[in-house]
Amino acid sequence: MKKQKHKQQEEQKVESISVEETEVSAEKVQKTENPAEMTPDGAKTEEIITTYRKNLWSVFFKRFFDIVLSLLGLIILSPLFIVVSLIVFFKLDRKVFFSTYRSYRIGRNNKVFKLLKFSTMKNNLFDENGNLLPDKDRVSKFGNFLRKTSIDELPQLINILKGDMSLIGPRPRIIEECVFLDEDSLRVRGLVRPGITGLAQINGRNNIIFTKVVEYDKQYIKTIGFWTDLKIFFKTIGKVLKKSDINKDGTVSNEFFGDMLLRTGEISQEEYDKKQIEAREIINKAQSKQPKQA
């Protein structure tokens, strides 16, 4: 009976990662036991989906305030936005916005969108084999300043206006990480718009492992509401002012989820390479949807 039940569960239709009409089978998501399948209080994914708080705040007012506050933010911070854009343009390879395959992220309903961030690294520094130098060798002093003050995140106010993101919500993850997520975790994260800051950001930010981040994301979806968002907003300001948990201790950039699974032996090199190929396929389809530049 247990085998038959398990087989029926495997045959259920799952959400897919998509870019407009482009859909990628959710079978590409890793189907292994993972701590991220549970929330901190032990709630199963199906329980989170059924108890997702569809209240007036999450359904209507949250989006209304996102639009109003992001628009006001862009107007008030426009002088800073212009100054930073000019400095980045002349100091960092004439590219104002971070624009690589890692700028494509998974959003609401598991749709792919392009995340906007100010560039913080030079993208024209290569080794003798033509490979980009490590992040620590490419990040500039000015780029470090942008990261520590979170000014590099300001362009995401545009993402909010477009409807890709929210002020508060789970941080949008790169596709190369999401392909390693189990199907249930991917489904739950797709219930809401990703945010500039979220519950994980005030509980360790970038200094916690990815599975813990997913746990906090699930907890947020269960408790989403005005007071929850307000608390996260003000605690985020404190984190920014203290410049805490910007990266994992002793690093310049964070270790990606797949890299951690490979390092700890939870997946093989073959499995890792297969997932990376799948991620690139999704990104290539997303890029094909972008308007051609003259």
Structure description:
There is one protein chain. With 294 residues, the protein is mainly α. The chain has one domain. The protein is built from 13 helices and 6 strands. Strand 3 and strand 4 form a beta hairpin. It is globular and about 55 Å long. The model is unreliable at 2-42 (pLDDT under 50).
Give the SSE layout.
Layout lengths: L1 H9 L6 E3 L2 E3 L20 H7 L4 H21 L1 H14 L12 E3 L5 E3 L20 H4 L2 H9 L6 H7 L3 E3 L6 H4 L4 H7 L5 E3 L12 H14 L2 H17 L14 H7 L5 H20 L6
Parallel strand pairs: 5-6
Antiparallel strand pairs: 1-2, 3-4
Helix pairs in contact: 2-10, 3-7
Give a quick rundown of the structure.
The protein is mostly helical.
Helix coverage percent: 40-55%
Main sheet makeup: 2 strands, antiparallel
- Structural class call reads mainly alpha
Q: Low-confidence stretches at least 5 residues in length (pLDDT < 50)? A: 2-42
Q: What would the keywords be for this entry?
A:
disordered N terminus, 6 strands, mainly alpha, globular, 13 helices, two-stranded antiparallel sheet, 294 residues, two-stranded antiparallel ribbon
